[in-house]
Each structure stands twice: as C-alpha cells, then as structure tokens.
Specification:
about 30% helix, single chain, about 425 residues, 21 strands, globular
C-alpha cells in the first residue's frame, strides 16, 4: 500500500498527529487562516507625521561591562585586561559598540533632517513621562530593546517600531527589515508617504488576585540581578510599596508582547500550580514552568519548547512503518516535509487575538496529570501552589506569584500594540 502523506493538525484545543493512507491532500497550514496582511496604499490616507520621537537605545555589552566595574574606577587598560581574563575580547566588544552607535546616529540624523524633534534615551531614562512626550517610539537595538519600548506604551495611538542596530549579532525579528538599518531615510520616506500598513500586535493582560499578592512588578531591566538580589527586590517591593492581603482583582500595569512565564525562581525546583483553560476544569500540575505567548511570541520561546527535530520525526515515522507495516520510504524529503508542516502549525499571526500555552517537562503520575502539553486558548487561569515563584513578562518585568495567588491571562483588543509593516 502506498504512503501518500501525513496530515498534522494543531487545533485550538490540542495537537493531534493523524496518519492517513491514500490521502493526497494536505490540510492548509494554520497560517492560511490568518488575517490579511495586505498593505493599504497611500491613497487610503494613511499617514505617519510625528513631530516628536523618542529613540530608545540598547545598552551594549561594552557599556554594560563599563558600568559593571565603574565602582572600582578601572581604566580602559584595566578593563581590557579584566575582559581578557574572562575570555572576552575588548576590541570585539568595542567594535560592536561602535557599529551600534553609528547606526543609532544614522536613525537620529534621518529623523532630524525631516524636521522631527528627537529625544534619545537609554533604558534607565525610559519612563512614562518620556512616553507621554513622544508621538512615536523607535527602539534602536534588537528584539529585547523593542520589548522594553513596548512595555511602557498603553496608548494605541502611539506607534512603536524597532531598528536592528547590530544585525550580525541580533535576529531582530520584531524590527524593520535589516536593509533599513543602513537606509533608515528610505523607511522614513515610506512611512511619511503612507506606503505602509498598521500592524496591530496583540498583547496579554494579567489580572491578579488572592492572598499576599503585589501587583507592582519588579523591573528586571534596571539591573542584572542575582537570585539573592532578585528575591530581595521582591521582598522590598512587597513590604514598602504594597500592603499584604489587599482584596480585589488587580490589573498588572504591563502587557506581554511576547510571553508570560510562570514558575519557581530556582530553575531546578519543580513548579506546582493548578490550571484552567478556557473556563474548563482545574488540573493539578507539576512541571518546569508554564509559558503563555501571543502570536508575536509564537516564533520565540514557545516555538523552541514545542518544535520537533528532524531526528524525532524520522524515528516516529520508522516506528509507524514498523508497527503498521506501512509501505513507504521515510526519506529525507518526507521527513523534512512532515517536520516543517508540524512546526509551522505552532505559529499564529501576531494580530490574531489568541494565546498559546506550553507546559514545560510535565510530571505525570497518579497525583499529577497533564492532559494537554500545549494548545490554543483565549483565557487561562493559574492558581499558584509555589513557594518562591514569579510571573515574568517579556523577560523584563517580574511579579511575585506564590501560594494563594490567582492569575487570569486574556487577550484584549484594547491592548494591541500599533506597529508598522512597510510596503516592499
């Protein structure tokens, strides 16, 4: 019997792998259900004419190392020798820093030539007042800088987009295409002439309630925290800025553009919590943590948690052939086709108001279950049974999440981030 294909379906409830014999048609990939990404023409009256723009610049590794040892009053020569002892190249870090600086200057010069007032800020200077001042926010760095830029913008009228200032070292998935790094004036002309479309990236909002909760997040962008300092920061924030056992439901003042991760602070400790998906039954879970992402984040951590390797798919196909006595050849082409089809089904459009949850390394026994290791959802509730856990939003904001706390994660259209997609 001829083997004609494998159909993979990652439904909004669960993932299923269905093997059919004699089936010549493949299900359309999840992407075919995405909303249209066609760019409107300038005749539609689309305009980008800001008078004031904030350019948020990343802290380069060279700057970080300088700041890290500033208390010791090290000279450049001392810093160079210290980095050499650590196996890092001073000259390499300085070169990358200079590349980033030149690209930032190019962006700023291009804006000012158009008569736009520019305020250049670093992450320590980037605050709510700065965001209110600007008509638009441009991040100059990589994806991390873009996430930081988005974290303080709750106003849908304020566009946010990124320029990758170090394409050799940073993927820049959330930034403009790489060639605009070196020709930002071209991107600016397209924006000002309306040759783009607004891209509304959905975000996750978090409601927190329960005993001993503190809805004020610790900003992890402020400094590189050790575990001890990290726990201390949470303790100080809890005791000084928020009374314990405050009743009611609290809306966390940040939105997740990529993902929310929930788990114990000590990675070697299992995370214990209860989970309800789309108002379904509660399930006791123990695992390495929970990742809940948007369509934007579906290409990031979530994808790498759930993707299959070519080797795994090849092994599964060979087992299917063995136990069902199927007549097909698991050649490289078939393995690649099946693997790519499955992995593509893990992605959703950033504008689709839906989330993907992923349970990392679930423990399954007579006490704990894990009926779904990943899936799509519009609402997810988590009740913490952890001792020293947190919710981390986009790797930059941390909220304490211990026993007695209840979090509800949803996507609300009012939280969508206004970004841009330029015409080709």
């Amino acid at each position: 019997m001829a083997w004609s294909g494998i159909v993979l379906r990652f439904s909004r409830k669960k993932t299923k792998v269905l093997a059919f014999m004699g089936c010549s048609e493949w299900l359309p990939p999840l992407g075919s259900r995405h909303v249209s990404t066609a760019s409107p023409k300038s005749k539609h009256g689309l305009q980008f004419n800001p008078s004031k723009v904030v350019v948020l610049v990343k802290t380069t590794r060279y700057e970080f190392e300088q700041q890290r040892y500033s208390y010791a009053g090290l000279s450049e020569g001392d810093l160079k020798r210290l980095l050499a002892l650590k196996g890092s190249s001073y000259n390499g870090l300085l070169e990358k820093h200079n590349i980033h600086t030149r690209n930032v200057e190019h962006v700023v010069d291009s804006l000012r030539k158009e008569g736009i007032e520019v305020r250049v800020v670093n992450r320590r200077e980037y605050d709510e007042e700065t965001v209110r001042w600007a008509d638009a926010i441009i991040s100059a760095g990589g994806d991390g800088t873009m996430l930081l830029a988005a974290s303080k913008v709750l106003d849908q009228s304020k566009p946010v987009f990124g320029v990758n200032t170090d394409p050799e070292r940073s993927e820049g998935h959330l930034c403009l295409p790489v060639h605009y790094t070196y020709s930002f004036s071209e991107a600016l002309q397209k924006l000002c002439s309306g040759h783009f479309r607004w891209k509304w990236r959905q975000r996750i909002r978090i409601y927190l309630e329960g005993t001993g909760v503190n809805p004020v997040p610790v900003d992890l962008h402020e400094e590189q925290l050790s575990l001890e300092n990290y726990n201390s920061a949470h303790h100080i924030r809890m005791t000084e800025t928020w009374p314990k056992d405050t009743p009611g439901v609290h809306l966390i003042p940040v939105r997740a553009l990529n993902e929310v991760f929930i788990g114990e602070s000590l990675s070697s400790r299992a995370s214990y919590y209860e989970l309800s998906v789309d108002d379904g039954p509660w399930e006791k879970l123990k695992n390495s943590g929970l990742n809940v992402c948007t369509g934007t984040g579906s290409k990031a951590w979530s994808y790498n948690i759930n993707k299959l390797s070519y080797q795994s798919v090849e092994d599964i196909l060979m087992l299917a052939k063995k136990y069902r006595k199927l007549d097909f050849s698991a050649d490289k082409k078939l393995v690649e086709m099946v693997t790519n089809e499955y992995n593509d089904s893990l992605l959703i459009n950033p504008e689709e108001p839906i989330m993907i949850f992923s349970i990392r390394e679930p423990i399954v026994n007579r006490i704990f279950s894990s009926s779904e290791q990943h899936g799509f959802t519009k609402k997810i509730c988590i009740r913490s049974r952890c001792w020293d856990a947190c919710m981390v939003v986009d790797g930059g904001s941390s909220i304490e999440f211990n026993d007695g706390a209840l979090a509800t994660l949803v996507v609300n259209k009012d939280d969508a981030l206004r970004t841009v997609q330029l015409e080709d």
